[in-house]
């Protein structure tokens, strides 16, 4: 049962209590990929605090798929997905309290501040609660009935329930749990409701709805938003109100996309895509680091891009721009630039 996002604050405290009661071990890892990097003091202090509860250590020596699969099969857990040192700690009230004191959410368990990917293993093997932080993967091995009960009891435990196939129910629960991450797809939406403004804690929003043609003004009231991804068949425009998202770090728009293609469905020629310009107001997004707009009829880039001093990636591909604008050479901070009529720059 996937979690839409990792529980934080009081929800994290409660889920740790439950996982401690339901599990035999919890696992924390030091990945081989991080072995040469210095650990933070907080990382070392966590290992020291948990040492009295250490039951065993599992070392996966290399990136051998056979070795990884052997360990995963033995424990039936997602915790062992890569090479490194994996610590299995005994679940107890005392070790649970340490986990609660050292972190405020599952995603806090990440290198270099802390050992990585807190997972709980049931007696006899198998996950009860798992996390793969860098991939934003969180979940619980519980039934739909148990998930519904827990979701109702714990505010902030936003589980991916079957009832969320109904968009109104998904939005109800997203608002109730004050989620900071939301993925919307395959609901057949043609517009976003006014209630989207109630997602006041939202930091990441991805929408993959082929019939969504227009972005409403209420979307730009989500002042904490840091990442916005839109995938659709055609988009009218990027509104000037995008400038209100002052915390935005990543903006990605992909036209010509289909979340549920039907027989005979075809992508419009890019010349017919409605998205044909980038508003100059985008220059107000001082925190923007990544800007991707793919498959569009944009003919030119606004000079206001020069104001984006933190922009590192600029990808305006499969567009109508014939030549990369010269002013981009002034943007020395850019690490990657693709402005092309095809998928990749050819010059």
TrEMBL record:
SUPFAM superfamilies: L domain-like. Transmembrane segments: none annotated. The keyword Transmembrane does not apply. InterPro entries: LRR_dom_sf, LRR_domain-containing. Keywords: Leucine-rich repeat, Repeat. This is Leucine-rich repeat domain-containing protein.
